[in-house]
Specification:
This protein is an alpha+beta fold. Helix content is 34%, strand content 22%. The strands form five sheets. Strands 4-7-2-1-11-14 form a six-stranded mixed sheet. Strands 8-9-15-12-13 form a five-stranded antiparallel sheet, with no helix packed on it. Strand 21 and strand 22 form a beta hairpin. Helix 6 packs across helix 7.
Amino acid sequence: MRLTTMAAIAALTLGLTACATAGGAPASAVAEAAAPQVTVTRDGDRWTADYVLPSDAPVWAFIRSALDIDGRGSWRPVQWTIETPGVILERQGHLDILRATGGGPVPRRIRIVMRPASQNLQADYNPAIVFTDGSAALYSGHFDVFPLASVEAARALPEDLNEAEFESQDALIRWRDRAGPVLINGERRAEATSSGQGTYVLFGQMALVDSPRLATVIDPQLPGWISAEIAGFAPRMAEYYARRLGPGQTDKPTIMVGWDGPTPGMTSMGGSVLPGLIIMAFQGTGVMEPTKLMSDRARWFIGHESAHFWLGQTVRYEARRDAWITEGGADLSAIRASAALDPTFDTMRELQKEVDDCAQLADEPVVSAAQRGEHRANYACGAVFAMAAEGAQKQATGGDWFDFLKPLIDANREDSILTREEWLNALLQVSGDPDVRREIDALLDTGAPDPSILIARLFDRTGVTYRMEAGRIVLLQ
């Protein structure tokens, strides 16, 4: 159970904690009784989620309530319909919530009818990956709910619940497909349960192809060259990371790859990583043929997602404002690993894009980029900071980015949190220059009218070579 007591809502949430069961009930039964329970069922074309809530509350809020990728609204009202009379699904503040139409407690039993669809979200996992053969994988984390005492309490919570205090219990989810077993954690089961760590559960009979280094579930309509890149390049990438960074979160991931079709004029690669699982989705005519540019992008993409088994799973950031640590670090890791495995990889093109994007987006604080919907700032500026750390490491020891990163991962394997202070202190130790941190702190906390000036000073102090062209930083070999 996660327990917090955010001062602004402490009075509002008082009395909504799940009560312990007295007597001699087994611990598992007590935990199950205290937790929300959900049964997710596919029966032909009908998808339902049946909730059994453990306590009375005027509001039940969804822990994961990200907006769609365009920031226009929540995905749930589009894909979910409340079938139980007297219950409303709506947006309040930063949260999707369930409430009773006439006030009072939400009914303990609620049925939701779902229409799963592939949908990119802002800084969260897609609710579903839909495959061309009719199979679909649903993300378990989107079913977790927690109680609140009022709509006002929901509005008072911040966008990043890592910075909030509330009480919740992971939902116990049962997964059922009338057509046959589901695939969960790399295994097919007639009826599966999950709780806690989020994962994708696959409904349908798509083949699971096993190999010594990975297992794959790949949409049958995915362009063949992408399938070949995943099968051939992903194991080599994982082996490289393990050699440079030590053990990652898993030695043998499952890769689940969706295909959203050859949409004209589009080139789209999206993905995410969970324990033991990489999710990828491709779309557009731009990825149909294996040009050198597309091959490089696919390999970088595989490298970025694979890097998260170390930077994101083995260690993770403390709060969303520090996403630059994992996203920028994974970007530079993917660039360096791709180049190490493929000498023809266009390293300078990828590094230059990171610098250009950071210079464009860091006119406002990077720590609040997610709130503005400018998630790319965490990737680009995080990569710029990682390039500076790599430059300082090279000046100090002749090493590279992985030589800077590995001690940080090793030092935080036990608590699994890599904080901003730890990252910046490591940079101070290797650079010996307090002003290096000053430039990064400024870009993180305030931004700059012309970020290129601060980035240039940061590169000057850490030995990253460049020239200025009409106010633009142009990297040199």
